UniProtKB/TrEMBL annotation:
Record keyword Lipid biosynthesis present: no
Residue stretches making up the Protein kinase domain: 12-267
Keyword entries, A-Z: ATP-binding, Kinase, Membrane, Nucleotide-binding, Serine/threonine-protein kinase, Transferase, Transmembrane, Transmembrane helix
Name of the protein this chain belongs to: non-specific serine/threonine protein kinase
Pfam families, per database record: Pkinase
Amino acid sequence: MVAAGHIVGDRYRLDRRLGGGAMGVVWQGHDLRLQRTVAVKQLLLNQASSPRQAYEARERALREGRLAARLSHPQAVAVYDTVLDGDAPWLIMEYLPSVSLATVILTHGPLPSAEAARMAALVSDALVAAHTAGIVHRDVKPGNVLRTEDGNVKITDFGIARALDDVVVTATGQLAGTPAYLAPELIKRQPVSPAADVYSLGCTLFAAIEGHSPFAHAKTEMEVVQAVADGRALPSTRAGELTSLLTAMLRNDPAERPTMPEVRAALGAKPAEYSIAPPPRAAAPPPEPRAAPAPSAGGSAVPVLPVEQPRARPAGVAVVEAPTERARGAGAVVLAVLCAALCGIVVVELFFV
């Protein structure tokens, strides 16, 4: 158990615990190298039954964190770094003073449909960018939608659900995650696509408008899981013009749901500029050493003479290059011609004397 003051990865100091849940513990921290405030999240891995499974879980968490760090979008909480401290993987993220949509609903009740649509529109734009980068969030819910004091909205915890493989029922039979916002295919352990985020965003929008999840009629978590799997969502009574969109987003069959770009367009979101960093290039392998020459027939090795390197030319000193063989030959020819010409002149002068 770590405490305030602990230094993660010899760089990030934990200052104040902000909260925690089934997937991790979040701290307000300080980057000692860049001198800035960060959010530091310790990921809580499921109990593995073997060292091999524990190793794979840690590697998966770090890999998903690095993937999420490639995305830079104004409506997504940025991931700065991934750190393995001890046996625990940690994510270093942007620190955003804010409250979650879950807290807003709990404190103030349902939102006006226009405000709920505005928040969902901003989140949908971030999810379109994430899907372009190959990231499926898998855990879109009110607790992961953050609203700042000035009304800005960001979604957090990209890739964490996939990193922890923390979907519904663990090997010990314990329920994990938030099943009321999970797509049916996640609960059924079927292949997951961006359509899962469409479903979860629909549940989040429903909760913002109605004040509760579409499965509030279920009394226990396992009843919620069964209701989600069966597609027994409550109808919306306050959505108004958003009713048809909500109904389409909450369809049980992923192929029948609208795409995230279609959801964004329906909510009237204006696409924001974003960037996706390329994956890091693997380091070039060091050059292989040259093999030593084979020994001669007599058994002695052929000596390898070092190649003489050209001497450095001193600054300000002109260097006259030695003439080549061809230049020396041309000079000899010119000299011979001149000598012949002089001899001719001497003979002519003697003849006329």
